[in-house]
Amino acid sequence: MRRMIPVLLSLLLLTGCGGGEEKASYQQISQEEAKEMMDTQEVVILDVREQDEYDSGHIPNAVLLPVGTIDGDTAAAVIPEKDTTVLVYCRSGNRSKTASSALAELGYTDICEFGGIKTWPYETEP
């Protein structure tokens, strides 16, 4: 019995460490990586600025979903599958981080945030 006590304690410690929930997350990538993904993969490019900002210029094929409107319904309308690769940007990189966190919290599993259009060195369209 004495030899079993350390084993039982070890098991309790191991199970206790794994019991917490994992925090939903996203990954931050460079604009170069985002462009490469746009060119070689099927992705959703998500612009999380406001309508007037989007209208003044956006990345080709980007879909508008303002950060303040993101919820389960609005996200599902734009990104029906939760395992879709989603590339998120805004003007300078602040709102895109907020939006990426919100999408991760909603259960989206492949979120890549790549900053803002202010520093985007590639093509944009009106």
Task: Please describe what this structure looks like.
- The protein is an alpha/beta fold and 126 residues long.
- It contains five helices and five strands.
- The chain has one domain: Oxidized Rhodanese, domain 1 (3-Layer(aba) Sandwich), CATH 3.40.250.
- A five-stranded parallel beta sheet has the order 1-5-4-2-3, with helices on both faces.
- The radius of gyration is 20 Å and the shape is globular.
- About 13% of the residues have low confidence.
What would you say about this model in short?
With 126 residues, the chain is α/β, with parallel strands linked by helices.
Descriptive tags:
126 residues, alpha/beta, Oxidized Rhodanese, domain 1, five-stranded parallel sheet, 5 strands, 38% helix
The CATH homologous superfamily is called Rhodanese-like domain
β-strand percent reads 15-25%
Order of helices and strands: HEHEHEHEHE
* Count of distinct structural domains: 1
Rounded to an integer, what's the Rg over CA atoms? Answer: 20 Å
Amino- and carboxy-terminal Cα gap: 75 Å
Q: Strand arrangement, largest sheet?
A: 1-5-4-2-3
Provide the residue-averaged pLDDT.
Answer: 88
User: Number of helix segments?
Assistant: 5
The helix content is 25-40%
Give a short account of the largest sheet.
5 strands, parallel
- CATH class group: Alpha Beta
pLDDT below 50 for ≥5 consecutive residues: which ranges? 4-20
CATH fold-level assignment: Oxidized Rhodanese, domain 1
SSE map:
Layout: H1 4-17, E1 27-28, H2 31-40, E2 44-47, H3 51-55, E3 63-64, H4 72-78, E4 85-90, H5 94-105, E5 110-116
Parallel strand pairs: 1-5, 2-3, 2-4, 4-5
